[in-house]
Amino acid sequence: MIIKRGLNFSRLIKEASKLIHGRQYIDHYWYLKSNPESLQPLIDNETKIKNSFFDQPQIKEIFNDYYQISYGRKDGRTHDIPELYDEYEYNGRFAYFDTGNDYQIIERSLKGGEKEVVLDLRKIQFLKQYHATLKLTKLKISDDHKLIAFGIDLLNNEDIVWLMKYIDDERVFRTKLFDCFDAAFTKDNQHLVYTQYDDKFRPYRLMLHKLGTTQEDDELLFEEKDEQFYLDLQQTKDGKYFVLLSQTKQSNEVILIDRDNPKKVQVLFSRKENAINLVHHHEKHGLYILTNKNSYDYKVLKQEGDSFIDFYCPQQGEVLQEVDLFHQHLVLYFTKESESFIKVISLENKETYNLYIPPSLVYTDHQKNKKNLLRNIYDRVIKNDKSQYFLNKKVENEVLGATIEPGVNHNYKSDIFQFHLSTPLVYDQVYQYNLQKKQLSKLQDANLTGKPFKREEYTCTRYYAPSKDGTEIPITLVHHKGLQKNRQNKLLLHSYGAYGVPQEIPFNIVYLNALEKGWTLAYAHIRGGNERGKDWHRQAIQENKIKSIEDLLGCAAYLIAEGYTHPSLLCGLGASAGATTLGAAVNMRPDLWKCAIMLSPFLDVLGSLLDENLPLTKSDYLEFGNPNDKKIFDTILSYSPYENLKSQVYPAIYISAGTGDFRAPLWNVLKYTEKLKQIAVKSKKVEIIGDHPFIIDINDGGHYGGAGAQSVIEERTRYMTFLDYYVGIGNKEITKKSLTQDIDESIQLADEEDKIQKQ
């Protein structure tokens, strides 16, 4: 047992060793959670080690090359495309604080008239001391377009304050709404309803605030006392109702609130029903809801009298994500194995078609090819598509990996809507679709500055890897078109697999340079996400969480066995709960990985879930299970990354963590790293700067990293520099013999069940 000076010995014995389910559970590093003062010396030491690593001339050269090229490739646009909000066109204009943190100046005009500034954060006196860290989280506009309310994350730690002001006045109201997650104006333009969070950052109250009064005078409209439920405030597209969802991932209660009279509350669905994701109200047709009621996956129901009937049930493989309602059409955003699509349904005759976005339009510069802006493309539907998304074979598609997100699209009676499209090779294109004319136009492209990126030389490919139980796991590869299966490719494998959240394939400005440097980027769509619907999530939760880990190991083994990479060149990346999966996979098969990147990682799973006082514990029972149940306790104990560290050679590991992170607290990271350094066997396969090839990058932010684009680029540059060093200069494994020798059969998971033990 490790004894730290200044700690009470009897308390140490009591806290470090507990009898749980008849088993002695020992946690030598418990004091890092119980004694916050013990963290600062570790923070100082880890920062010193990190700085020493990045100050090495050869490493500084790698960093500078990445950073200069990546930061030089800025988005050349100066403003967003305007979106129509009643009679006004609103848009954001890109700007920077003196600290380098970027933000948007919100502007508006009447039908293309003279621009008027709605909000410039730089001009608000109260915010000046926070310019380096603040983020604008949300902005709401009153119905008369005279007032705005907006949320500010001052310290980039998800602790949000809401401010209010008249649009024609730079001064904000004296009253500020603290602990406020979301807010919206009532129809009289004199009140705000807002959700307030508790000391665990759980939105649990709906409050009514009268403008001009203090927060202490606010009236409670609803309170959710069950700690597994949290509140989500929405508004129907026609502006008639607020919709309050009191929800978990599995069920919720739906409450309608009249915007004319916010004290008038109606329970639409009780929490005994299945989950309701979204509610829309149509002036003629009544309510439309997105729900998994009586269904494994989401579908759309339509109100008919006092009951609801099926309006649209997804076709095989479709996973509905978003619904947008217009006066004559319903627009559905859905995915198939993480690929994004749009479906349009007429409310009058139920004509249904999928909106096809041609690769030639995505990869054409609209500024140089304006003749291609309008295309009649509605006649192609996915059911006739030959791209074979669900066959167990290689699938290659120029727009594979596309992520589509709806625009604001506030105007309910509009026949035009906007959406945004990104791929790993294309950043935030803005499209507009005319529902009456069935015409698509590309309004805006990213127009990256700096070194030109030859995206025509790269592509995305889909493969399927067998997991331990034989389930085929999709893998998306982003790579040079000349990729060879010669085992000599540097490969970074991303995964998440939790909370029913799919593994997206986002655009990353630093990854463009990584591709140019020969990296292949892989994305494993493992169970625990929702790539194949709710069942894909449910297959890997609670007592079956191990399946996420087995899926990731199966993907790693497949990529090695097929010759796409080699264990001396394979790296993994997981963020938050995705790092739980990666951390467990590294413990089980450290020989498969050269490096592991863990961003804001959740590593002390068992210790965290045994403490009901932590912010997310009770809601996390739905995902990981409650360890007060012996079966769940044993399951978590078998894979939790912290508990399963052992005396063996580990890959090089880079971890980022924030001092203000309440989701994956810093103590949970430092417990892991302190134990890792004590127990890991020193590697002879890498050049070591310091005692171990481990870097802990600690920042002052929260769970989602630094504030602003520059901080994000710097963080990504640091971990890519780390990877480039350890698979390159610092890699002692790379020899012609090691890269071309036959693969040991032991890396093929399907043939060796004894390698993954449920401890």
From TrEMBL:
Domain Peptidase S9A N-terminal span(s) in chain numbering: 16-363
Function: Serine peptidase whose precise substrate specificity remains unclear. Does not cleave peptides after a arginine or lysine residue. Regulates trans-Golgi network morphology and sorting by regulating the membrane binding of the AP-1 complex. May play a role in the regulation of synaptic vesicle exocytosis.
GO biological process, one term: proteolysis
Name by which UniProt lists this protein: Prolyl endopeptidase-like
InterPro entries, per database record: Pept_S9A_N (IPR023302), Peptidase_S9_cat (IPR001375), Serine_Peptidase_S9A (IPR051543)
Gene Ontology MF term list: serine-type endopeptidase activity
Family label: Belongs to the peptidase S9A family.
Annotated Pfam families: Peptidase_S9, Peptidase_S9_N
Residue intervals of the Peptidase S9 prolyl oligopeptidase catalytic domain: 515-728
